[in-house]
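Lab notes, practical 5.
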Amino acid sequence: MQRKPKRPCSYPGCPELTDGRYCEKHEKEIEREYNRNNRTYKYLYNTARWKRLRIKFLKEHPLCEECKRNGVVTLAEVVDHIIPHKGNKELFWDEENLQALCKECHDSKTAKEDGRWGRKDEVYEY
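Output from the prediction step:
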């Protein structure tokens, strides 16, 4: 199967060739910058309480909800907030607001919600 030719990294001034948008070095830098500016509540995911809740929830809901809706059986890996909490602790801890998803479904849902696919008006304020 043919592959697309590599293209220059989109980071200003970087001559590296890559399959994605950024080279490996700048992909990490862009990701760090994105998380620092857009996910100030990330610390909640590192608490012991969240880690226990996540394990318990995945044991109770082992299959991806989105895949199940599409008639596919896939093991869930991620506990997702149905309504994005955006730092609201009450919504973050609400178990009624959680669903089990596979990584692919979670990444797709999150990208649509947080602007990773060109919906910048919902992420940035001008």
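Observations recorded by the TA: Residues 64 and 74 are 6 Å apart (CA to CA). Strands lie at 7-8, 17-18, 78-81, 98-101.
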